[in-house]
Write a structure and sequence with these properties.
345 residues, 41% helix, 13 helices, single chain, six-stranded parallel beta sheet, alpha/beta, globular
């Protein structure tokens, strides 16, 4: 990673990816990747993907039917955690192949136009000194970005606040500043810190407490004027429905690997629309740009460039907007030489 990411949970220097390829009998390929956080997880998932591939061999390329088949396959162990990554990435590869077969970009295949999608730069801005964060925030505006995200969750909130103020002073007024605690706080601390951020020019506060504590998250959302953002840890619809029913957040965001791939995203987008929630993405900008284009109430694309080195054509950003590619499928194609260079052994 060009800019290592220091969060309250873990410092990440390398993007560990599991690449998934699906090949149809007609010779059409579908591609996706899972972000595995740790090399051991990426390695452990390879035989699981292979077993699932054997199970799916010969079945018709019908996304909803295959999604049901994958769900049944993982029913006993439960499609959560790393198994959710496998199920979601295979589903994403299926939709890539289907839209390629139709000769259409994924967004178009889903019924959407190919207009640009607003993006915020999420590369970097980890736990660092206030001055370093301010410098990096300025650098992240290159490409015309009009929003960036800063990680919080230091041992002393005074240090978080000083960093927010240093970054906010350095950014032009119209630029939005999102902050993410990565679940670092207790409920009582989160209530105090969220209220303290209300007058600091913050656009949203992401996951201040444990991601599934919807009752307390709702109390924070009610108390704070700054909108609360959650959702990257929704594993399918049941937890999302519980969070929405509890009023746990003002916004929601979907993680392609956890929400259930393209099939799960579409279902979640309908649920978000029913609750009148704006939808943003978490990671996977290449595919998420297509999906946000087809999402009612689309909000912000989280842009990271972690997969760029292994892609033939990385996602383009112009004037802070993600340009949805016009080529058939989701736009992912591997740079095989670079894949070989970085292959985990």
């Amino acid at each position: 990673m060009k800019r290592p990411l220091g969060t309250s949970a873990k410092s990440i220097d390398d993007a560990c990816l599991l690449l998934v390829d699906l090949l149809t009998e007609d010779g059409v390929g579908g591609h996706a990747y899972a972000f595995c956080y740790q090399p051991s997880i990426a390695r452990a998932l390879v035989p699981i993907v292979a077993e699932l591939g054997t199970h799916l061999t010969g079945k018709p390329l019908v996304p909803l039917n295959l999604a049901q088949e994958i769900s049944r396959y993982f029913r006993l162990p439960g499609a959560a955690g790393p198994l959710a990554m496998v199920a979601s990435s295979v589903d994403t590869a299926v939709w890539d192949a289907v839209s390629k077969t139709a000769g259409l970009p994924l967004a178009t295949y889903l019924g959407a136009g190919l207009g640009p999608v607003p993006a915020y730069n999420s590369n970097g801005l980890g736990l660092m000194s206030p001055e370093a964060a301010a410098d990096e925030a300025e650098a992240l505006l290159q490409g015309g970005f009009k929003a960036v995200k800063l990680r919080l969750g230091r041992s002393h909130f005074e240090d978080d606040l000083a960093t927010v103020r240093a970054v906010r002073r350095r950014l032009p007024g119209p630029v939005r500043l999102m902050v993410d605690f990565n679940q670092a706080l207790t409920f009582s601390d989160a209530m105090r810190h969220a209220l303290a951020l209300d007058d600091e020019g913050v656009y949203w506060i992401e996951e201040p407490i444990r991601h599934d504590d919807y009752r307390h998250m709702a109390l924070i959302a009610q108390a704070a004027r700054t909108p609360i953002q959650i959702g990257e840890n929704f594993t399918g619809l049941p937890p999302m429905a519980a969070a929405l029913e509890a009023g746990a957040s003002d916004y929601v965001m979907f993680d392609l690997d956890r929400i259930g791939g393209v099939t799960g995203w579409q279902r979640a987008a309908g649920l978000a629309a029913a609750y009148n929630r704006e939808v943003s993405s978490h990671l996977f900008p290449e595919v998420s740009a297509h999906l946000l284009a087809a999402t009612p109430g689309r909000h912000w694309l989280e842009y990271v460039n972690w997969a760029d080195p292994i892609l033939q054509e990385p996602l383009r950003i112009e004037n802070g907007m993600a340009i949805v590619p016009t080529r058939p499928g989701n736009g992912i194609a591997w740079n095989d030489d670079v894949v070989a260079k970085y292959r985990l052994t």
